[in-house]
Amino acid sequence: MNGEIIASSYQKWSSVYSIYAGWQLLQWWYAVSNSVAYQQSEAITEHGGSCKMKLSLSMWSMHRTVRENGWKVLDFLSFCKDEGIEDVELLNVFWKDVLEELPSVLAFVRDNGIKVSSYAVANDFVKATEEERAGALKEITDAYPVAKILGTNVIRVFSGNLSDIATYEEALDWIVDGLKEAAAVAEKEGLVLCLENHGKLAGSGEQVKTIIDRVGSPALRSTFDTGNFLLVDEHPTAALETLLPYVSHVHFKDFEMREDGRYKSLGGKAFEGINLGDGDVELEKIVNKLVENGYRGAFVLEYEGVGSEAEGIRRSYDYFATII
Question: Mean pLDDT, to the nearest integer, of 53-57?
Fold first, then answer.
């Protein structure tokens, strides 16, 4: 990364954070500008993928462990190192102090050969006031310098949650307007926003496609979550037919239908998270279809089962090794 790009990114960084904190960050940023993280960033394809198919681990897969034990991002990365996991997805919701933690996180991934395949934010554009919706936009754009520092150009985004503050049409307009602004900046920054199928507003393949088409930017693509479609009573393989040309990021998860499942579909079915390969999602068929269509992005494990998260992750990695 040359000095002009660093200076330009620093200007955006200081608009997000304080001048003093940004200046501290700039000093170590220059020191690591030729690090592995940046070299990895150079190798990422247009929509965030490498040509080698590997399973990345989302920090969300350990969310119960993180909350119960007060883990920081560095604790999660240490777990990954011990497990031999080399690709990860980090989330903005898990920082305790992003400015304080970033230098040590970047040093750790560099020193241990860990690649950050994607970065995820939890924005919600369905808010009653313009100020709140502007805050949702800011949550996305605040992620841009962080993603760049971590060496990824892929940022997972949400739409929002349907509530009684707006009609479906009003909520959809807010989502499209917010993502259109976010995508315009992302495109200039060489970043790709990937909208996850999640909730009642962007839960189905057609809903995600409609939002992406209305935004009309190459910087807004799809995060194809293999499990979430079941929660809107849509078969994931059918959703893939709709979204196949739009997919630039995959959340790889499995659900099984069972009476005591914690996750309820719109039609009243109950599902529970489970390790890959033991549920109802035709994962191998989805992988083959994506690869045949030229997908070269990350397959990001998002384990949401009960019991030991670590054991569920291990079993999921064992399964993935059988289908690649």
Answer: 93
